[in-house]
Amino acid sequence: MFDQLTGMRVFVLAAQQGSISAAAERLELSPTMAGRHLTQLEEYLGVKLFHRSTRRLSITEPGINYLPACERILADISEANRMVSAQQHQAQGILRMNVPLSFGIKYLAPLMPLFSQTYPQVQVELGLTDQAIDLLAGHWDMGIRVGSLANSPSLQARKLADCQLHVCAAPAYLAQHGTPQTVADLAQHNCLQYSLSEPNRWAFGTHQQTVVEVSGNLTANNGDALVIAAIGGQGIIYKPDFLVRDALADGRLVNLTLDQPVLPQEGIYAFYPKQRYLPLKVRVMIDFLTEQLQQALA
């Protein structure tokens, strides 16, 4: 099988060293094999690159014209190989990361200065959206999402931190409308809903065995909007800990205890294209976020 790249390497080294044997030695080939690669290259091009005799090797005019291009191509390949190899030893380059809007603003953006100090050669491009994304089609290096991820043959996932769910409401809402005692009671309350999941169905229990049909006068595609409305006394929300923990801590929201437990603790996951060699920039970001988020969300 014709190997043009090896033929070009033999040609360039033979021109530089003045002999095919010297080129063969540099490439750890036998002189016969090196000569065969050079002959195949000449046959492919349809020209003679060298005048060869038992005593002398001299480059032809086509060879003189061809040499600079070959040297440039081989140098570019060498540089590309060096650059990719370096990226496996030093985190560098642009890291495109897609994350949920509220989570990205509350938790990831504040961590970016520390990450930048630790890995100054990595430039982060942060995409903020709650919408489902196609990681590969969008050319994202990695994404972060809350909750379990569907199995995909092209993606891998790693859990960064746990994330508890809460059913909660403002004291003013409960004072006016009463406090639900059971999951079934939620059907009689104003439940503020997240439009990017199944907005009218809230599941409870360790195996999601209890589902209640809920309704309300506000649906939004962003969790912070629902939290703000709930704090204002508009209704009940069912949201992850990172959205409501501050409001629960200072009493603006109150946790509700029902007859069925909330869904088991969800996870915050990083996901990324499945590949044999995970780029170092992705690996260090995942390790960094795992350490930082487990402390922040403890």
Give a topology summary:
Blueprint: H1 4-17, H2 20-27, H3 31-45, E1 50-52, E2 57-59, H4 61-87, E3 93-99, H5 101-118, E4 122-128, E5 142-146, E6 155-163, E7 165-169, H6 171-177, E8 193-194, E9 201-204, E10 210-213, E11 219-220, H7 223-231, E12 237-240, H8 241-249, E13 254-255, E14 266-273, H9 280-296
Parallel strand pairs: 3-4, 3-5, 8-11
Antiparallel strand pairs: 1-2, 5-14, 6-14, 7-12, 7-13, 9-10
Helix pairs in contact: 1-2, 1-3, 1-4, 2-3, 5-9
Model description:
The chain is an alpha/beta fold and 298 residues long. The chain folds into 3 domains: 4-84, Arc Repressor Mutant, subunit A, CATH 1.10.10; 93-158 and 267-297, D-Maltodextrin-Binding Protein, domain 2 (3-Layer(aba) Sandwich); 165-255, D-Maltodextrin-Binding Protein, domain 2 (3-Layer(aba) Sandwich), CATH 3.40.190. It contains 9 helices and 14 strands. Helix 1 (4-17) packs across helix 2, helix 1 packs across helix 4 and helix 2 (20-27) crosses helix 3 (31-45). The chain is rod-shaped, with a radius of gyration of 31 Å. The protein starts with a helix and ends with a helix. The mean pLDDT is 90.
